Amino acid sequence: MNSQNKFKVVKPIGGVHGISAIFPTLKDVIDYEEKIVRLNRGYPRFVTHPFVGKIEETLKNKFHAREVLCCQTFESALFLVFDFYLKKGIKIYTDYDLCHRLIAFYNKKFKNFIKTAKTLNEADLLIINRKLREKLTDFVNIPKIGIIDAEKRELYEKFNGMDVLVFNYKEKDIGAIIFYTDIFSEINLLRRHSGFIANSRKLCPTRAFTRAQFKKHETCLKNKLGELEKVSGNDCFLFPSGMAAIFCTILSLFARNKNKIIALGSLYVDTLRILEKWPKKFGFKNNIIIYHNFENELLKVIDDSIAGIIFEIPSNPLIQVIDVEKIVSIAQQKKIPIVIDNTIATPYNFNPFDFNVDIIVHSTTKFLSGKNNHMGGCILVKNEKLKKKLNDFKNFLNLNMTFDDIKILNRNIKKFENRMKTINDNAFKVAKFLQNYETIDKVYYPFLESSSDYLLAKKYLKGGSGLLSFVFKNSSISNATYFYDNIKSPILKGPSLGSEKTLLSPYVIMAHYNDSKEKLLKLGYDFCLMRLSIGTERTEKIIDCLKYALERTK
Hints:
The chain contains 21 helices and 23 strands. With 554 residues, it is of the alpha/beta class. The longest helix has 20 residues, at 416-435. The chain is globular.
């Protein structure tokens, strides 16, 4: 983003390490999407936390770089750079062991995908850890990546002339990507989609901890999450973010002869981006996304090349409910694993393993935490073969939930059931109110009897959870502005969901601002759609707030 853009201070939601921020007006949202303003706070994958930004600025000055990106681990930083340059048949020269392991990982997954160059002159890509006898100026047209795994002054000169450096910042236990070329924006997007951004809590832990202390708290949390989803804690894997959990799940499923994922229904924006971008990298055909008539359309496209089927329940933002039993039955005939993102339904309302689903993913940041002050994700899987694939990739990237986030979630999850009971009740009442309001065209909430998914919701879900969306009869930016700008307390105007605080988001404007009208039509998204994540406040206060704003719409 241009440093000359106006800097706007917004209030974080959730404290110093809060995972959302308040956008007071719809113009603030649009100015952010148009890159007219820079924000001090926001959802951490989209707006860099000040603690992370400070480290990035320090490293930028130290290494005299164009830009710097901090990642959760050194291994994940190296993976993103390696993955950026990756293409079928590329010849890589490297003297670094972890890169040889990456090459072996890809070649095992996709036979002979990468070639190892024996000399620098044969290479399409150089990844170097030692000082070269050859001059880097002799390799002008070859991308050059330097690996710094120890901070010593002489290393800075050694890597002069590199396009990118990957720095193992051991003091902070993170990885940093240091840029001398103009590929920053592209890799920044990869970091966002993968969820590998450095966590602010990791950069300033509350106190030191031993390995034994970490293991104790980690085991406690895994057991709690396993109990909620009716499995052992040994079947649970913790991640630094929900997107990291999704990303690792999807990439673990891909293989040479299993090269397509089928997605069902509306999916979260970065899950869509992963499915859109990564198959092309491996030379595969596009993944398949089915938006309606799920069982019939699935039968038309399912074959032995499918690596997995993924969907959310309910989906975000259209709150669709898919017939799980029918999808599982179709998938089992081809022995295709089913992945369900259960973030929105939560284990309080739905347990996918009861219906023979293979993998469950959660963003623990959302309803499981409920406080806007924790970031994390988890994967639950019972099948030993799938478990090994996921565990190997997770360990390779050295991805773990931070110690402080584990402790916070252990605390927040104690009141999870009580919180969800209130959220279920509140959301249903709010959905009924909106359905009957004269300026509202449609409400997306499956427990409304008018919903096309009502019977499926009653079949699978204990309650409708807290997420709902709606569109205006007069769907226009001006009408959306009248509504959004007049929202008052207790509703907070910010991204994210699953909090005990009610959150309003102009979801499509925030998540799909640059998508074409044709793409939005295909997705079934109204540009001015509003998404509400209902909290635990008194229902009357939420409805009064909505009523006040709706009275100002046309």
